[in-house]
Amino acid sequence: MVRTAGGSSVSGGSQAGGGTAAAATTRPGAWPRSSGAGLYCPTKSSRDAEAHVGHCDERSFHAPLSARGSRNGRERGHLEIQRRETIEASEAALEQLLERRLDDKDFLVIYIDGLHCGDHCVIGAVGVDTEGHKRVPGIQEGATENGAACRDLLQNLVERGLDPKLERLFVIDGSKALRSAIHAVFGAQAPVQRCRHHKLQNVVERLPREQQEQTRSLIRAAWKLDAKDGMARLRKLAEWLREDYPDAAGSLLEGMEECFTINRLKVPPWLHRCLATSNLIESSQSGVRMRIRRVCRWRAPMPARWVAASFLATEKNFRRLMGYRDLWALKAILRGEKDMPGNVKQVA
Q1: Does the predicted model carry a pTM greater than 0.85?
Q2: How do residues 219-251 score in pLDDT, each as one tens digit?
Q3: Which fold has domain 105-334?
């Protein structure tokens, strides 16, 4: 008897009515009902809920990792075929993702973040072009979000045609490794916006509950000001917090300038919602997690293969960036026409 992911049990061998569970395998495409250690036998409802990943079919993508303990050779052969098909399909997806050219992609914004698969970390990127279309340019597997893995990811993008001379905005969660990798590949002048949601969370979680809401409101209010005035307000807030809550004050000051990058560039306020946080790539990663959520034992090179296949499947559901009609203003700022957003604001 094997317990499924939902907690129900599936029994093998003969049943009370004289029929056998193995009989189900005679129907083409049927899941074997008997299984052994390490096997995953989802119910029909859970299988129907799973999305297709790349060219893997639903059953092969969630194929059991081991056929050990199966009751007959037919089942073992069926499961082994599914396992091989899954590996081949995910390898093809990884190759497709890492080899497609980027020469014709003018990414104006690139979001970068890491996705943890057990003890492994897959660093992914989502680019937004001048028309607001989203695309996954590449991924890189590493033990953590270390500098070497981040540089490998960005260098691979350049090798496949991403122009390092064009100005573009990078949005990250605050990782120092990501920041140093962007400097190394695209230069120290490359603008980096730090995710304000992560910054706000890091500060308020170091405060008692009665202080959190007021501090949250003050920080958000400061972010609406221009860069100089906003940073001055936050420094005063940090001085007030330092006496009783030094950890919160230190978290507020750490990397504060990068939280005001879009303010310093004078990006129009109506674009702040989509550029001030890394929510866009985190939303994409949620689609990946939905597709790999049943995997509990990660072994190299599984993470890169499965994440690549899941990203490609999630990419098919991407919508254009909210506020994409105004991205021309960001392009004008990054590519040298600094006065255009000010003129737009006056007309508006």
Answers
A1: no
A2: 999 999 999 999 999 999 999 999 999 999 999
A3: Nucleotidyltransferase; domain 5 (3.30.420)
